[in-house]
Amino acid sequence: MVDTTPLTQAVDHFADRLRAAPQSRLQRGAAAEALALARELSGWAQREEAPGAEPREMPDAGMFAAADQILVAAHDLAVVLDSDEQVAEAVRRVEEARQRAGV
């Protein structure tokens, strides 16, 4: 079993930062960046679970739901990852998205 703790810690930190961010920061792109990450991670998880099937796109539930969406997507992904390299790649993507979001 792969230790996905680094991924869950990284995404928990990002989600906490989003929840603490002012609405103006969310509107300036932080929420959009989080939604893009949630969609990316969700698609990755779906491709791992059902190779060859077309992944469903995570809907835009609004800027105040962005933190929850990245948590759900990352936790779904954590269940299907099967190597330390995949975990490291997922953490890298979360950290890059957090930096682009400016939170």
Automatic annotation (TrEMBL):
Protein name: Uncharacterized protein
Organism whose genome encodes this protein: Streptomyces nogalater
